[in-house]
Amino acid sequence: MKKTDVPNAIEQTLRQASATREGFLGPDSRSLAAILRADDKAVRQRGLTHARIAKQLLALRQAGWKGLGELVSVPPHFEVRVDAARGKLPCPFGDPGSFAKVNTTVCNLERGTEITFTDLNIHLIAIHGFYEGRGAPFRLDPEQLMDTLEMGRDP
Asked: Does residue 131 belong to any structural domain of this protein?
């Protein structure tokens, strides 16, 4: 993907503090195109797709929703907690609709690792292959994410 493939307006929206307190790119100085390329490479090296990762995140969120605010055991060795807040967030790429402010925390009890993601994260990964910039509050590093979820090659 070339820099010109990503409209400047979208990159500016992602960097703006008004989108989220710290923006979707955080202090990451790389261009949006460079971030997307690097994260896509990490996912492909594991033989995965963004859609498959998003599908797994959604399945864990749905399993955790049953306990809303309480830990739910999910085989083989995960604990999931879903917390909801009032309000919705729009997609910063301009897609129609908005996403509930729902945080899902997944603990891999065997590895001692944990990730937290939002409903918006699921959408951004599935549709845009976007995990946010380094240092952004809701950045999901693809390597850490795949390791915690035990997806792809054995980490």
From this structure: yes
Residue ranges making up the domain that contains 98: 3-149
**Residue 67, token pair as written in the block:** 């306990």
- What pLDDT digit, counting tens, does each position of 4-17 carry? 445 678 888 888 75
Q: Looking at the domain assignment, is residue 154 inside a domain?
A: no
State the residue for tokens 């992602």.
14
State the pLDDT at residue 82: 97
- 27 within some domain: yes
Q: Is residue 155 part of a domain?
A: no
pLDDT at 12: 85
The DSSP result for 125-143, as a single string, is: HHHH-----TT-TT---HH
What pLDDT is stored for residue 3 in this prediction?
A: 43
Long-range contacts of 117-120 (CB under 8 A, 24+ apart): 117/57, 117/61, 118/89, 119/61, 120/89, 120/91
Which amino acid appears at position 114 of this protein?
E
Query: Strands, E, within the chain: which ranges?
Result: 72-74, 78-90, 98-108, 113-118
The total of structural domains in the chain comes to 1
The crossing angle, in degrees rounded to 10, of helices 50-65 and 32-45 is 80
Please choose, from the candidates 91, 87, 88, the residue with its C-alpha nearest in 3D space to the C-alpha of residue 124: 91
